[in-house]
Amino acid sequence: MACLHHAFQKVSAGVFLLVLWGEVVGDKLLVVPQDGSHWLSMKEIVELLSEKGHDIVVLVPEVNLLLKESKHYTRKIYPVPFDQEELQTRFRSFGNNHFAKRGLLSAAPMEYRNNMIVIDMFFISCQSLLGDSATLRFLRESKFDALFTDPALPCGVILAEYLGLPSVYLFRGFPCSLEHAISRSPNPVSYIPRCYTQFSDRMTFPQRVANYLVNYLETYIFYLLYSKYEDLASSILKRDVDLPTLYRKGSIWLLRYDFVFEYPRPVMPNMVFIGGTNCKEKGVLSQEFEAYVNASGEHGIVVFSLGSMVSEIPKNKAMEIADALGKIPQTVLWRYTGTPPPNLAKNTILVKWLPQNDLLGHPKARAFITHSGSHGIYEGICNGVPMVMLPLFGDQMDNAKRMETRGAGVTLNVLEMTSEDLANALKTVINDKSYKENIMRLSTLHKDRPIEPLDLAVFWIEFVMRHKGAPHLRAAAHDLTWYQYHSLDVIGFLLAIVLGTVFLTYKCCAFGCRKCFGKKGRVKKSHKSKTH
Amino acid sequence: MACLHHAFQKVSAGVFLLVLWGEVVGDKLLVVPQDGSHWLSMKEIVELLSEKGHDIVVLVPEVNLLLKESKHYTRKIYPVPFDQEELQTRFRSFGNNHFAKRGLLSAAPMEYRNNMIVIDMFFISCQSLLGDSATLRFLRESKFDALFTDPALPCGVILAEYLGLPSVYLFRGFPCSLEHAISRSPNPVSYIPRCYTQFSDRMTFPQRVANYLVNYLETYIFYLLYSKYEDLASSILKRDVDLPTLYRKGSIWLLRYDFVFEYPRPVMPNMVFIGGTNCKEKGVLSQEFEAYVNASGEHGIVVFSLGSMVSEIPKNKAMEIADALGKIPQTVLWRYTGTPPPNLAKNTILVKWLPQNDLLGHPKARAFITHSGSHGIYEGICNGVPMVMLPLFGDQMDNAKRMETRGAGVTLNVLEMTSEDLANALKTVINDKSYKENIMRLSTLHKDRPIEPLDLAVFWIEFVMRHKGAPHLRAAAHDLTWYQYHSLDVIGFLLAIVLGTVFLTYKCCAFGCRKCFGKKGRVKKSHKSKTH
């Protein structure tokens, strides 16, 4: 401890200062998580907060997927009107529906309907929570210092208002542009691609036209997702509620990206970028996986996972994939829980689970076949492994585009690709040195940061607990109406003055002219009449 | 060292990681400073870089004010066609002219002419540097890794382009909005006050109208200041040069403010906020000052300085001030190099120099009379001392407004204030507890940060040296024309389509109608003629 103290004194010699840490223990934090893969990032932050001595309560529906017990937090369980089977059926349908064939026009409605399978369930869960008086009483009496939530769905946001707590949001990017729309961060449509477009930040003219039009759909998405929650909020808060106004009360946005991955764009001072919190140090491989890796020889391994949300792949597609994997010399470790495809090649090993980050961190990792969820992408960047990306839903198509434009991977459409396409893509990212060089460059930039993102996340949550919010980071833009924000009233006023002045000048001139020439005319006339 | 190493391993337990530090020694940095108070912040960063083992060359005109020798850097001296006397005369005139009486309409031209006294001299200095072949040869042959400059005037920016070096800018805010205009950071006029307006971020309608109009003057200010430099740049680079394009190549903007002081607003990812680098730990007072402070008794002290640029105050004004200072029970330590006013009270001690930060850090400091330069303001915030602000030029009026809106100080117009005004302002900030509370709140927020600003500055300069720039932080906005950026071409195109469609529909309908009704008409007619 004395040693640590000594180290801290070296601030001026280049060691970063540990501001106030250690002093702040015992604050009480309420966590309102989002079940599913979103929870994985939040869990890491919550665990670190717990290690620092904070008292953490996680609000958990009695039926859930990943919100399990832990020594790091107390779970406050609330009842929901569905059972484990329904939950699993919904998640399974959600995951597997991504492999259904879809046409150009039917793609968007199918994607929307598929998302709603789980989103509707979350709404029911929220409704149940906000209607459970025992849980609400417990929350009111617990005297929390702050609330930490995933704002993709607004249950935590409503609860923060109900309990009068300052809040911190942890967010990746769906619904599209939520963080920018809410925090009044300018979002120029000319170089910031809207989500689902799969455009880069350098768009052609037709792409910019499309991006401009897609931009207007975002308001509609917000309406579809959130209008029901407004009624829920109004009922519990006993007043008319405008959901964006509630959202704007969030003190800090912890955003799960950085600008090695995301395109540079304007941001607001209460946005903190913590992309790569899950880029942990490589752990030791179990004997099973160590043996696979060692046996792979000079060709090394390929790691293949489509994430925790996808458990099955249609048989035909699985056989196509298995065929492709058999065409490369690398050993492929494939996380797959469905029925093994009958044509599985000798180099392909199916596993129910794999230590993804540790395998990617192994020097023998040659490529990573991923659905390009944000966690996987960052593990790929962190470990510098070129990717073949098979995006399925949500932000995954856009994530893949970002990696592709940086030359760090190849994207395939999982529904349309052939076995040949996948084999070629793998050979390309493994044999074309530029992919490895590019991902290594990204990896170096990503890891060269003044402070670890996980520590930054913990710092800002503690900051909000210490200061009961962060009002000094709230832009005055929030207090303006939309027309004031865009200075439309000022422009109107100035325009009125200019037009008024022009009109008056014209009238004066016209009047003057009439006076002069009119008189002259009359004079001439009278003169004429006199001379006659 | 082993101890330090042990401390670093504790990252996951909450200690911030020291990324790559220590590895990067021996990079070569060229520093192109701005003489005068701007140098004070830059010097601290340069010294810390030198302590970390970097080889630093500071480009210094042979005649200068503050760019003195140091063990921390090598000075590369270039000739200038003026002598020390002219330099001092210019700086003295610049400082003292602020006390000249000015009318409402003459204020702006007088301020402009006064600034040009020193700015013209800097231009001559830059001209001399860029024309000195020996210095240029030395710079070309020195193989620097990066260039660190104050971009308020563009000499360093031009040199970075000439030498093909990535650059880091250190900037406070003059010329107004330069950092935002150059880095394409949106700058909504509805809540971001333009400089010299002395508006806050919450403006009335008339203020928003004025702010909107002042906004257009900024382009004119840029033109006045920089047009001459464009010729200089074109001549040395042997091609037509657009200065904003050169400026945009800067990798990182180190901005000398934070959002405890500045109003929250949109920013870009290559902006790093390092307000308060000069907020050092309190040093030990010399015997002389210790004696003054101890003798002040229960009333404590007031620290008074108008900064390094002002050496004299007109006799009448000095007497008015001296009279006011005599009306408070505190001991006043006044940094003043002019002729002592004859009516100086017993409680007022004139000194040629004072350890400002150490005095403000003393528990007996009750108030700080300052010209509200950014260094002084941050020393006031850092030490939590309420301020009476007598702004003189540049950003000082706007700095004062920011402190005033936060209830941390009172602003007076030094030209118009009476002795009574100053005495009352001092009594207010000392006796009204809210001022102390507010400045203490700001102080706590300012100092509660995940990493020390000086370390952050050093980190980003080293980052640019390590990676030869930071292109991943450069927004694609820079590659768009102004009309593309604002999507005017897209809007025009869509408008043309809409209008075209409306026009065509109208024409088709008209044609159809003519066909139908025309025919009908003719049919009727022929029918008529037949019946007849």
From TrEMBL, chains A, B:
Membrane-crossing ranges are: 490-513
Q: Which SUPFAM superfamilies match?
A: UDP-Glycosyltransferase/glycogen phosphorylase (SSF53756)
| A Pfam family it matches | UDPGT
- Major location (coarse): endoplasmic reticulum
Compartments (UniProt record) = Endoplasmic reticulum membrane; Membrane
Gene Ontology CC, one term: endoplasmic reticulum membrane
Per the record, membrane topology reads: Single-pass membrane protein
Q: What is its EC number?
A: 2.4.1.17
Q: Which reaction does it catalyse?
A: glucuronate acceptor + UDP-alpha-D-glucuronate = acceptor beta-D-glucuronoside + UDP + H(+)
What domain of life? Eukaryota
Q: Which UniProt keywords apply?
A: Endoplasmic reticulum, Glycoprotein, Glycosyltransferase, Membrane, Signal, Transferase, Transmembrane, Transmembrane helix
Q: Which GO terms describe its molecular function?
A: glucuronosyltransferase activity
The signal sequence is: 1-26
> What family is this protein classified in?
Belongs to the UDP-glycosyltransferase family.
Q: What is this protein called?
A: UDP-glucuronosyltransferase
The organism named in the record is Suricata suricatta
